[in-house]
Amino acid sequence: xxxxxxxxxxxxxxxxxxxxxxxxxxxxxxxxxxxxxxxxxxxxxxxxxxxxxxxxxxxxxxxxxxxxxxxxxxxxxxxxxxxxxxxxxxxxxxxxxxxxxxxxxxxxxxxxxxxxxxxxxxxxxxxxxxxxxxxxxxxxxxxxxxxxxxxxxxxxxxxxxxxxxxxxxxxxxxxxxxxxxxxxxxxxxxxxxxxxxxxxxxxxxxxxxxxxxxxxxxxxxxxxxxxxxxxxxxxxxxxxxxxxxxxxxxxxxxxxxxxxxxxxxxxxxxxxxxxxxxxxxxxxxxxxxxxxxxxxxxxxxxxxxxxxxxxxxxxxxxxxxxxxxxxxxxxxxxxxxxxxxxxxxxxxxxxxxxxxxxxxxxxxxxxxxxxxxxxxxxxxxxxxxxxxxxxxxxxxxxxx
Length: 400
Description:
Blueprint: H1 15-28, E1 34-35, H2 47-58, H3 71-85, E2 94-97, H4 100-111, E3 117-122, H5 127-134, E4 138-143, H6 154-160, E5 165-171, H7 183-194, E6 200-204, H8 220-223, E7 231-236, E8 249-252, H9 255-266, H10 274-285, H11 289-309, E9 325-326, H12 347-358, E10 360-361, E11 363-364, E12 374-377, H13 382-398
Parallel strand pairs: 1-10, 3-4, 3-5, 5-6, 6-7
Antiparallel strand pairs: 2-8, 7-8, 9-12, 11-12
Helix pairs in contact: 2-10, 3-10, 4-5, 4-9, 6-7, 11-13
């Protein structure tokens, strides 16, 4: 009898974490490496949020809390959804978890049965399909390409839906592409979903506040109120407030689903960190200046990187509407030979040779289900980004 569960054979370790760890190892060994693999802001958590956490400690808020969030935070989340998304929830329709990833995982664990299908537009965040597999479902990728700026069409969505479809996981702006759906584009997709009442929608709105004018963020249930009763609107404080390590995600949805997710959480992690919950409360209810300040910096970096990469031979880089990633195609580099003598047959070959030759760490697009591309995070200094792009241009210029 095997000791490890058979289900582990269905999933892969996170490629983004693997790249970040590899870059750290090379740096520790003395190699000059610029890491563009991590998906987190490089800014510090705003001071008033850190102060709130310290105050919570001093006030003795260090005990167990309600399994899926303190009442004050749930109320603040309700007010956030109403204020920013036009969505009305009560605290009983809110769940708070240890990061956005746990919100998604709890929902999948609470709803999927063997054979249930989950539609996932590709490129996708690396964890989506593996979480579906761990929950016993079947991930179904909807392929996109650079010609649609990595966005699915209504016809593609319609064609992908079957009687077995239970969820659509919808992420806008996207990790990894940064692509965001306009209100008109989203309305065309929700029109399709309205024809299929058995399909639920799980939104990942984590990059809601990192968007660049003239793009305006909107969420599915906001665009189509008819989807409200079968939408789980997921978000968190990680990206918007530079709080990745605090591990607080949240969602609003139908009460029956929220209760089922709480049952899963009660038997796994129980409550999220009490101190982090009070910090998240301060994030949602306190000054919002940081959001605009960070957006300005991220837009400047986006423009820098998109311009520089489009000057690299064999690379085509679309301009993303949001998040802090670019997702350039390296189709023009395939079949060429790297300085090491390695023929580049895949995007994984490209990023491996780039790291070893020039010390720039990015993540291969095939890990996100769409290649030949790579994801680079521009959540780092302008100086590092300029140097990284210079190295990428040199690497591409050296290909034969």
